[in-house]
Design brief:
Elements (H helix, E strand, L loop, with lengths): L1 E4 L9 H4 L3 H22 L7 H4 L1 E3 H27 L23 H14 L2 H26 L8 H14 L6 E2 L2 E2 L7 H4 L1 E3 L18 E4 L3 H14 L7 H12 L6 E3 L1
Helix pairs in contact: 2-4, 2-9, 5-10, 6-7, 6-10
The chain binds iron/sulfur cluster.
Iron/sulfur cluster binds next to loops.
């Protein structure tokens, strides 16, 4: 069971998890409101429009984004602790990376910028870039395979086709290009989806090749529409558009926009 768990409309979860009491729901909503405010502040900073040409952003952008990411983590910890207090086991822990066999999708430009910054901070940029390039090649092959099956070209951006390719990719059991030894090399910089994803079933069920995988009880805490709107506003001001599939977006940002330069954070 895969669940996109909108905190305002909980769906299809085990009884205890689906009945979020109002005080818990209010806390989760307040986290989203605080995150939205930080993102709106980013959207009002000066100098965003020239990013694609100058490869620089206000240092305040980075500071506000770090605080927003911290709040995402805090809200997840709060919810996981709530579930545990209800007697539900959440097996997610360091060293378990079954969920990193999914190719993250729906990644915003802001998240991609943060990951890109993390790639440069990691000291292993060339390796991470190479792994992203290899993963993108696999996705392209799968897209061609889908085209063959359909007997004609697919619109790669169409959601159903995208999901079809991503599902095929998942079945290959390839780890994410940023995963090494079951650890995320960009953990502090990981996208929202990776911060808001956890399991209520045995950890091994999260492995796409495990026979119980279709029955894994996975929760993805959803981000609110207000947060999405604030992200869209930043994206419009930055005047760049990137693929929402993690490795494709990272490659476009690296090659087409940044030409491998690190982001310059200016005071
Ligand atoms: S970005 Fe990190 S946490 Fe997210 S899927 Fe990749 S390796 Fe896993």
């Amino acid at each position: 069971m895969k669940v996109e768990h909108d905190i305002t409309h909980p769906v299809n979860l085990p009884a205890v998890a689906s009945e979020i009491p109002s005080p818990v729901r209010e806390v989760l909503t307040s986290y989203q409101t605080r995150i939205e405010k930080l993102l709106l502040k980013i959207g009002c900073l000066e100098g965003l429009e020239t990013f694609a040409f100058e490869h620089s952003l206000p240092h305040q952008f980075l500071l506000l984004l770090q605080r927003a990411m911290g709040l995402f983590d805090e809200s997840s910890r709060f919810y996981v602790n709530y579930l545990r207090r209800q007697g539900l086991a959440v097996p997610c822990q360091e060293g378990c990376a079954h969920c990193c066999q999914n190719m993250p999708a729906g990644t915003s430009v802001v998240e991609l910028l943060y990951l890109y910054h993390g790639m440069h901070q990691s000291g292993v940029f060339p390796r991470l870039f190479r792994h992203s390039f290899e993963a993108e090649q696999v996705l392209t092959q799968l897209l061609l395979l889908c085209q063959d099956r359909c007997g004609g070209p697919l619109a790669a951006t169409a959601e159903s086709h995208r999901d079809q390719v991503l599902q095929l990719y998942q079945r290959l059991g390839n780890p994410c290009s940023f995963s090494r030894g079951n650890l995320c090399q960009l953990y502090p910089y990981r996208p929202f989806a990776c911060r808001l994803h956890f399991s209520l079933s045995p950890a091994c069920w999260c492995d796409p090749r495990h026979f119980q995988f279709p029955h894994a009880r996975i929760i993805n805490l959803a981000t609110s529409n207000c947060v999405h709107d604030a992200l869209d506003r930043i994206e419009r001001r930055l005047q760049i558009h990137l693929s929402e599939i993690l490795v494709c977006g990272i490659l476009e940002l690296t090659v087409n926009v940044m030409q491998f330069d690190p982001i310059r954070w200016v005071h």
